[in-house]
Design brief:
Length: 154
């Protein structure tokens, strides 16, 4: 792992880092339009980062965003417990293979323990070999199907 790596849990005052993370996600996922074409307002990002159930972590090397993740805390109804869902996780191409994704997940594990979560889960595409290797190293695999249900226009 990079010696000057810092994992930072973003708060409502970290708008510029959130914007940098979105740019990095767009580049890492090859989806620049999705992450950068219609950026949310500062007020929206401030409100989002203030929500307790939204967890945004960035990996910084110096002042540069090298990686990050966005996760959501889900409070369960069947028992008094929580789950954490990793929605996005990426590392910039120039910083891969240095343990940054593992460091981000380890920090998320700490947060999950502090919040009383019993599990962290994440989805991965079958064709994403590096992600599959990482998640197989850190957890157990469960075969599920994912469905997108359109909500229609407003």
């Amino acid at each position: 792992m990079h010696s000057s790596l810092q994992i930072r849990h973003l708060t409502c005052t970290d708008i510029s880092l959130m914007r940098e993370l979105n740019v990095m996600f767009g580049e890492a996922f090859g989806e620049r339009d999705t992450y950068c074409e219609q950026p949310p307002s500062d007020l929206y990002l401030q409100g989002l980062l203030a929500k307790e159930h939204v967890i945004v972590l960035v990996a910084l090397t110096g002042e540069q965003v090298a990686g990050g993740l966005v996760a959501y805390q889900l409070d369960k109804f069947e028992q008094e417990r929580r789950e954490i869902y990793i929605y996005d996780l990426a590392v910039a191409a120039t910083h891969r293979r240095r343990g940054i994704a593992t460091a981000l997940i380890e920090r998320l594990r700490e947060i999950a323990r502090q919040r009383g979560a019993w599990v962290i889960y994440v989805q991965a595409d079958y064709v994403d070999a590096p992600a599959l290797a990482l998640y197989n190293k850190l957890g157990s695999r469960e075969e599920v199907l994912h469905f997108d249900i359109e909500v229609g226009s407003i």
